[in-house]
Amino acid sequence: MAVSWSVTSAAPFKITIRHMSKHLSKSATKRLPLSTKRAGKGYYKGKGATTEGHINSTGKFILNPQKRLELVVPDLEGFQVSLSNFYDLSIAVVV
């Protein structure tokens, strides 16, 4: 006589706990931001600044005036500025 048993669990799926590993897979490391530790020998990340010239063969920096940062400021002649616009001087702080 053959008896078959069927066991139904409360949850229809298996719960697995994943732990973070300090070693990432190769596909995961490709998605990380590129840093100087992960790049090749000649990689220089910098700080996001623009280059305003170049270094010549003797090590001297040659400035290119066309690459300089140019700030365009409007003419402020006749513009009225007062501190009462920014601060309410009638409020006294008591400590």
The low-confidence parts are none
What's the helical proportion of residues?
A: under 10%
Assign an overall shape: flat
Largest sheet: 2 strands, antiparallel
Element order, helices and strands? HEE
Alpha plus pi helix count: 1
* Global structural class: little secondary structure
Strand order of the largest sheet: 1-2
Query: DSSP strand (E) fraction?
Result: 5-15%
Total E-strand runs: 2
Question: Over the alpha carbons, how many angstroms does the gyration radius reach?
Answer: 33 Å
Amino- and carboxy-terminal Cα gap: 92 Å
The residue-averaged pLDDT reads 76
Protein described:
- A two-stranded antiparallel sheet has the order 1-2.
- It is flat and about 75 Å long.
- The longest helix has 6 residues, at 26-31.
- It has 95 residues and is largely without helices or strands.
- The N and C termini lie far apart (92 Å).
- A hairpin with a 5-residue loop joins strand 1 and strand 2.
- The protein has one helix spanning 26-31, and strands at 53-55, 61-63.
Sum up the structure in keywords.
little secondary structure, two-stranded antiparallel ribbon, flat
Task: Summarize this entry quickly.
The protein is mostly loops and 95 residues long. It has one helix spanning 26-31; strands spanning 53-55, 61-63.
Ordered list of secondary-structure elements with their pairings:
Layout: H1 26-31, E1 53-55, E2 61-63
Antiparallel strand pairs: 1-2
